[in-house]
Amino acid sequence: MCGIVGYIGKQNAYPILLKGLKRLEYRGYDSAGVALLNGDINVYKKQGKVTDLEDYCTGQDTTGSIGIGHTRWATHGEPSDVNAHPHVSMNGIFTIIHNGIIENYSYLKGSLEEQGYAFRSETDTEVLANLIEYIYRSQEVSAEIAVRLALSKVIGAYGLVILCSEEKDKIIAARKSSPLVIGLGENEYFLASDATPIIEYTDRVIYLDNDDVAVIKMDELVLKTTVRDDALAARVQTLDLGISEIEKNGYDHFMLKEIFEQPRAIRDTFRGRLNLEKNEIKLGGLYNVYDKLIEAKRIVILACGTSWHAGLVGEYLFEDLARVQVEVDYASEFRYRNPVICKEDIVIAISQSGETADTLAAIQLAKESGATVLGICNVVGSSISRETHAGVYTHAGPEIGVASTKAFTAQVTVLTMMAMMVARSRGLIADDRYAALLNELEAIPGKIEKILEHDDALKEIATIYKDVTNALYLGRGVSYPVALEGALKLKEISYIHAEGYPAAEMKHGPIALIDENMPVVVIATRDNSYEKIVSNVQEVKARNGVVIAIVTEGDDTIVKMADHVIAIPDTDPVLVSLLSSIPLQLIAYHIAVMRGCNVDQPRNLAKSVTVE
Ligand code: G6P
């Protein structure tokens, strides 16, 4: 959600903060602010993008070698200058930035108002700033103790970074359910909500755990918890992330770069895991739960957004190949539905960021019920990867564009490998079929490369349909989640209303919408429901609908019926979503660019949704 940066050391903090905020802008981009400590604490904040903040700061005093910065995605209070972070406590003693939500903020605010506190903003963060200040003054304790006491009264989630005007040698940071990482330099420390702003300065980092509180001076870092006063040992890790992975490298947008990176991303996902010579798949992260996985009577997949669509593909794969009953749930629905969870269940949580609040909460619920919880995450060291019993990283590399692309295909790749492994261990897949699938999976990146070569043709289709107001996406079987994902891509970045439907369901409602102005994207690749989808295409054409069809190379039936045809290389039907999703990503991308939309940072969205 929001992005947090901080710096303490000998350098001028402002340029480091600004660069970091730009790297983190994908997490939230409705307002931004910085606080710089140089004798006094100067706070500058502005509604809009980080560049608006930069313009606003031009000519102001931005000196200081201690500073904190924030880019916001509004939860409490509209995006505005006053609601932007940092927030300063009423008497100016504490300046704080915060990611997350203080759920009991209204109660705390009432109590503080009774003590004479007044509030400038509508945010929960300002309540926290004043609570810390109130405790600091009334109990005459140090800033660190005031923070820890205040946090013990707070219900909710936070990644917090705090400056105190009466203890100017330090930054205090705390975490609960909202990520914070500290980079270790030579007599300097960097803070951020993920490692991307830190990587160019150091690869030595400490990820804060829930309830950790860090007191950071230029030459010292002390780690405690909210409730325990004794110092914890620092858990220093080495980052495995290159700077080129978080830059656009000549592409106009991160999204386009990430679409084109998919052959590489998928190869990285199965690197060291697929062994064609030995005809085997190894997923080391699952070793200690493997017996439970192959014996599972039921798999429950939990996720949100695009990851949920990958989960639907996973349902198809596990049921088809491994004959396990699978349920796929939106994490947010699962946790509020009093779901039936058994100890023998395997729960798979899928998340690119590994920080999605609803998915984290659903994991908690599943763990409390005794289920074995596995994670499929892209971000190494993320909360979900640490909260789950075991798991598999996708290794797609950092995904910065808000609309997920390479993370989706990498998640599907992992799910495919898992389903194949389980199928084999259960004796449900013949060796030759297994070997054929393994070879096909290995060939997928090359086939994606071929699809990417047709980008210009996809751009032409985008030119024709860029001004439509609605679009329908249809698919059957494993192509149904692809239809959902294609529609989601279009709506989230181009703001065109688009819906995905199982093709056969069209006749139960959406068919009423079809006329000559309604483009219908049909995923009609060759499989055992091909004849049925041919009929669906006919139904659309009979009502003057416009059909854009994704077909298998060599198709000679739909080619004659559809208005536009995008042919993709042939593959095993089990793997086809890895190919058919690519043209849909590119069409959505080009339409959004042609409509002048901000592709990487679509309105109202955020990359990592750390609020429920
Ligand atoms: C946000 C993003 C989506 C993403 C979803 C789930 O809505 O904009 O692209 O699919 O969160 O995120 P996760 O990190 O859990 O996969």
Textual characterization of the structure:
The protein is 36% helix and 23% strand. It contains 19 helices and 26 strands. The strands form five sheets. The chain has an eight-stranded antiparallel sheet, covered by helices on one side. Strands 5-6-7-8-12-13 form a six-stranded antiparallel sheet, with helices on one face. Strands 18-17-19-20-21 form a five-stranded parallel sheet, sandwiched between helices. The longest helix has 22 residues, at 431-452. The radius of gyration is 25 Å and the shape is globular. It starts with a strand and ends in an 18-residue tail after the last helix. The site of 6-O-phosphono-alpha-D-glucopyranose has 16 residues, from helix 9.
Number of helical segments with 4 or more residues: 19
| Amino- and carboxy-terminal Cα gap | 11 Å
Global shape: globular
Question: Helix content range of the residues, please?
Answer: 25-40%
Q: Kindly state the number of beta strands.
A: 26
What structural class do you assign from the helix and strand content? alpha/beta
Major sheet size, sense and barrel closure: 8 strands, antiparallel
DSSP strand content? 15-25%
Mean pLDDT: 94
Strand order of the largest sheet: 3-2-4-1-10-9-11-14
Q: Low-confidence parts lasting 5 or more residues at pLDDT below 50?
A: none
- Rg from alpha-carbon coordinates: 25 Å
What are the bound molecules? Answer: 6-O-phosphono-alpha-D-glucopyranose
Task: Give the helix/strand layout.
Layout: E1 3-8, H1 13-24, E2 31-38, E3 40-47, H2 50-57, E4 66-72, E5 87-88, E6 94-99, H3 105-114, H4 124-138, H5 143-152, E7 158-164, E8 167-176, E9 181-184, E10 189-192, E11 204-207, E12 212-217, E13 220-225, E14 237-238, H6 254-260, H7 262-270, E15 274-275, E16 280-281, H8 290-295, E17 298-303, H9 305-322, E18 325-330, H10 331-335, E19 346-351, H11 357-368, E20 372-377, H12 383-387, E21 390-393, H13 406-425, H14 431-452, H15 455-465, E22 470-475, H16 479-494, E23 497-502, E24 519-524, H17 530-542, E25 546-552, H18 558-561, E26 564-568, H19 577-594
Parallel strand pairs: 17-18, 17-19, 19-20, 20-21, 22-23, 22-24, 24-25, 25-26
Antiparallel strand pairs: 1-4, 1-10, 2-3, 2-4, 5-6, 6-7, 7-8, 8-12, 9-10, 9-11, 11-14, 12-13, 15-16
This protein binds 6-O-phosphono-alpha-D-glucopyranose.
6-O-phosphono-alpha-D-glucopyranose is lined by residues 304-307, 351-353, 356, 359, 402-404, 605, 607-609.
